[in-house]
Amino acid sequence: MAKLSVKDIEIKEKKVLVRCDFNVPQDDNLSITDDRRIKAALPTIEYILSQNPKKLILSSHLGRPKGKVVDKYSLKPVADRLSEILKQDVLMLSDCIGDEVNKQITQASQKIVLLENLRFHAEEEKNDPEFAKKLASLADIYVNDAFGTAHRAHASTEGVTHYLKSAAGFLLKKEIDYLSKATGDVEKPYYLILGGAKVSDKILMIENLIGKVNKILIGGGMAYTFLKAKGVDIGSSKLEAEKLDLARSLLEEAIKKNVKIVLPVDHVIAEKFDKDAESKTTDNEIIPDGMMALDIGPKTIELFNNELKDAKTIVWNGPLGVFEMDKFAKGTRDVAVFIGGISATTIIGGGDTAAAIAKFNLDEKMSHISTGGGASLEFLEGKALPGIEALTEK
Ligand code: AMP
To answer: Using CA atoms, how far apart are residues 229 and 204, in angstroms rounded to an integer?
Structure first.
């Protein structure tokens, strides 16, 4: 990577502003229900602390307060959790910019401070230059470790880099390194597994990767538009009728580019989209009238695993069935277990696919699970992410 990393910069006695992704889920009592995002930031935090900074100034957004102070979106619970994990006090500040904040940072006996939610100010998401300047004025150097927001040009991800030397944290660097493996010089055979609700969400990614991959395996809701395009009866399964022509042209392009497209050959079907719906397995690819496919069937699982077994690189974006409902989770689970057991580099797109892998407790089995759904999708679409582009060149 040509961008500066946190390891390349002099930190000693400097005030370091770090943009983290502490957008953690909370219950009604504001207790954090999953602290993986906080833990994911620890390598960068601990490294900076080991270099004796003057102050470590952490920042993040939480929820969607839409430019107003909304108490339930305060980052205070994150400061408390961080203090526990780091076994040292993290001072929660009253805001994220301004004289008072500057004073609090200067007077703090604590080494680590956490700015209040950046999105309490509408200027953050508008990438307002004045706001970015005020944020930058708190520190001497800037580190971005928030991949989940790197596809957005916000004041704390892009604006701030105009005023400070800017480096990637370890988490951001890991994302760039792995996702670059999927889009650049890829170790082959390289297979792409696609699923999820809609074809329309994945078109740009398919177009960007079709010239690089050797096979595309398609399951999930989007498979039925492709099956229909091939003339298969799909019953009442999910269909994007306006994408049928596009599905046909992608199938033709794949033939021209010598990319094998693998579609489901059987399905788990039900009459309705319901966790308690009575389910059946079809004998073949045809789905009877009035029935919808909600998961890939056993023959498809076997077929997919067989097609994947010699992979050197696998990118997976989108679950292969309605994994949130136990009856329709088997396809996604069995393929995840299989690829977790082979020696390929396995790169999991964020969002729902990452949620599925976490649900099956298979996180440790994958090479990389992206922390950003939208950001990883845009990266795989070949787009430049503003939060990464803006970092200082090495
Ligand atoms: P996406 O965010 O596009 O990756 O879509 C993920 C969603 O697709 C998940 O919530 C799944 O439940 C849903 N999904 C997967 N397979 C199907 C299917 N066969 N029919 C309807 N929805 C599906």
So the answer is: 19
Which residue's alpha carbon is nearest to atom 18 within ligand 1?
A: 221
pLDDT per residue as tens, the chain (394 positions): 589 999 999 999 999 999 999 999 999 999 999 898 999 999 999 999 999 999 999 999 999 999 999 999 999 999 999 999 999 999 999 999 999 999 999 999 999 999 999 999 999 999 999 999 999 999 999 999 999 999 999 999 999 999 999 999 999 999 999 999 899 889 999 999 999 998 988 999 999 999 999 999 999 999 999 999 999 999 999 999 999 999 999 999 999 999 999 999 999 999 999 999 999 999 999 999 999 999 999 999 999 999 999 999 999 999 999 999 999 999 999 999 999 999 999 999 978 999 999 999 999 999 999 988 899 999 999 999 999 999 999 9
Residue whose CB lies within 8 A of the most ligand 1 atoms, among 332, 352, 353, for a mutation test: 352
The amino acid present at 190, given as its one-letter code, is: Y
Whole-model pTM over 0.70 = yes
Our answer on whether the CB atom of 373 is closer than 6 Å to any ligand 1 atom is no
DSSP annotation of 393: B
Distance CA 281, CA 267 (A): 6
Distance between Cα 277 and ligand 1 center (Å) = 17
Residue 327 CB less than 6 A away from ligand 1 = no
Q: Where does the chain hold its CATH 3.40.50.1260 domain(s)?
A: 6-171, 179-380
At 280, is the secondary structure helix, strand, or coil?
Answer: strand
- Short-list 109, 141, 170, 136, CA closest to 14: 141
Task: Give CA–CA dist 280/300, Å, rounded.
Answer: 15
294 lines ligand 1 (CB under 6 A): yes
Cα of 337 vs centre of ligand 1, distance in Å, is 19
- Positions annotated as catalytic residues are 37, 198, 351, 374
Nearest partner of 44 among 58, 26, 60, judged by Cα: 58
Q: Is the CB of 322 under 6 A from ligand 1?
A: yes
Q: What is the CATH number of domain 179-380?
A: 3.40.50.1260
CB of 293 within 6 A of ligand 1: the answer is yes
Closest-CA residue, ligand 1 atom 1, reads 196
Domain spanning 6-171 has what CATH number?
3.40.50.1260
